[in-house]
Amino acid sequence: VDLSSDVASIDKTNESLPDVALKEFDATRVKLILQDVVEHYKVPVAFLAMEGPESLKIKARCGTDLQDVPIDSIAKHGISRDLPIIIEDILTKPQWAEDVLVRGPPRRRFFTGVPLMLRHRRCVGTICIMDTEPREFSLMDAEFLVRAAGIICSIYRSAAETKDLWTLTVSSLDAVQGKSEQGSDDMLPSIPGQSLTLESLGTPSVVQGKPEVEGSLTLESLGEVLHTTDPPEDDIPP
Q: Is pTM, for the whole model, over 0.85?
């Protein structure tokens, strides 16, 4: 794909998380986001390919039963920039012809992957979509996928601080903000209500690989209330 010079990007490194941390990427909240991705792009396959020392671990998978793939698979975000990898027709890339994710059955023809940037330069995996038919796809088309990647990383950073943030819902926001204004240090409660989905977050712009949404609720926009800003280095599993 032509990575336009006017799209902000950064140099990055690929790093793996310990197995105990990878379990967080199979949580229900993350799977729901992948389902939103499938519905948005009308693709049969979507998944997270998490970095590992010897293979990529497939998490939150939709449309595939694979649990891991070779480290040099098409799903690895192997470029040095934090930009989407877009392959409109895999038949034009013979190096991927026998990739386990490509050959099927059914054989897949389209691939796009967006890096999961846990920190400014730290890529821990890729959120991927695939289709059995080739399609035209631009960087603009990838914005929804970039947004999904940012939210998944925000959820993980929150979960690294407190498991209760996994149960946060839109209707619980007022209660959370009230506790923050009162200076309460109590653990955030689980309050029934409408679940937070990608569609409820509005249309983002992409800056430095992170989604920004004006006038809409996102995990990142809640700042200190939801503790989604990067915690000290020791607070996140290595």
A: no
